[in-house]
């Protein structure tokens, strides 16, 4: 996803002369191509995220279209008040990009985990929260966020995630993308869990259960039509995220469902626990320890259906 | 322009002070002494320095002014009324239910460049505005007014590093160095001294002035431009509560609201100041 992001801003920087890239002393060589082409529009802001976020707000208030980029917890929680007051309150077109989200950097320890970012950022008025599922969605998300011109948080994984979409899908912030149709259960996958969601659907199919799979890349605003269809047409609705259950995408759907008066007994939220993780090895091991694998998820869905 | 347009900046500052004192009483709003300490800087900038146009509050080439010590909002509001961004009558709504003249400035109000009130937010945004001028080839300048207590915030020093690294010569920050923060002497709470040396060692062009001397304020901002190679920091020695004898250097007035009688006494003193009675000048305090 990192490389897809760098490629996207290099391409989009050609079309939009106002795009300015701010990085928090990260991405050595990653942005060389952008820097070569747009030397006046790349700034290494150092290890100083509060300032970087304020600078982005000042640029945006002056007509530019800044993107801030560093490791997720540092670019979200560390500078949360700057995001809230400098960007969201005046509703400025700043794109905040976090890299290494969820458990992407599981092996680096709790300092680098981000299982709270969706929860926190979606509480901010005016903010959009977008979690691309694969490298193709990354480029499309950045492009659509620039079109939107509003405060937007884009949650990236790391590098080397597989490309899942066979071809670039139609991508609009706030509209989920159906990858597979299904009758019994809707699996709404958030961000980098899409491969797990597809595996889960395959395994359910083998047991005679038909599962729809959707990349629900936008947690805020939620896709009303998608959710209405899922809750009325399916026997179960599963929200799958590499993020804490407290306040995450599943929690957002619960809030939505409460307001809509749908049957929330259909909802199954799958995510991380309310505790810090330690000693968890890489992303694969971390997911396994939290039950975020198809082998863990399938029986939970079957129990919910019964 | 209001009917203050024929005043010089010193007279204007006295009139601003009288209004700010009355607004604190009418709006039941605190931080009066903090507003009084920076009135001269605000008055001089809006009188003689800032290239702004109330008819075009978002004009791309306007100079930017961020009152980063947002708790002194009343000082900004009187200046915005003076330059025509808001109606003078709107000052009467300060602190009242439904008014956009909140106790800390809101960007919803014309002429307000940033939401301030949480300290340490103005300088990074001022850096961004100054950097934008360079990227876009615009000649405007960015001014930021901070408090000394505000220099407790780490984001101030992050921004100091950034502004020097980027050689933002079109950026000028003030510290309204009144030697007090909410609960004590700023020198004692977090050992702020030597403040001038700190900014100088961060790579800023530092000017140390009497923050109530309008000529010194005007001189300090000369040379702020894209062509300069370093940002300018003006360490302005001030007196909290300046202009009202029974408020000067008394930190109770950080939060106290004046009574109607105190407003009257203050305004009597300030009326004398406006007609040119000699005002005692604070001497620069050596670092």
Task: Describe the protein in words.
The complex is a heterodimer of chains A (306) and B (287). In chain A, strands 2-1-3-4-6-5-10 form a seven-stranded mixed sheet, sandwiched between helices. A five-stranded mixed sheet of chain A has the order 7-9-8-11-12, sandwiched between helices. Chain A folds into two domains: 2-155, Rossmann fold (3-Layer(aba) Sandwich), CATH 3.40.50; 177-305, Rossmann fold (3-Layer(aba) Sandwich). Chain A is an alpha/beta fold and 306 residues long. The longest helix of chain A is centred in the N-terminal third of the chain and has 14 residues, at 2-15. Chain A has twelve helices and twelve strands. In chain A, α1 runs parallel beside α7 (135-148) and α8 crosses α12. Chain B has nine helices and seven strands, in the order ααβααβαβββααβαβα. Chain B has a single domain (9-274), classed as Rossmann fold (3-Layer(aba) Sandwich), CATH 3.40.50.970. Chain B starts with 8 loop residues before the first helix and ends in a 13-residue tail after the last helix. In chain B, 37% of the residues lie in helices and 11% in strands. In chain B, the strands form two sheets. In chain B, strands 1-2-3-7-6 form a five-stranded parallel sheet, with helices on both faces. Chain B has a two-stranded antiparallel ribbon with strand order 4-5. The longest helix of chain B has 19 residues, at 9-27. Chain B has 287 residues and is an alpha/beta fold. The A-B interface holds A 20, 40-41, 43, 45-46, 48, 50-64, 66, 81-82, 85-86, 89-90 and B 60, 107, 113-115, 118, 120-121, 123-133, 135-136, 142, 154-155, 158-159, 161-162, 165-166.
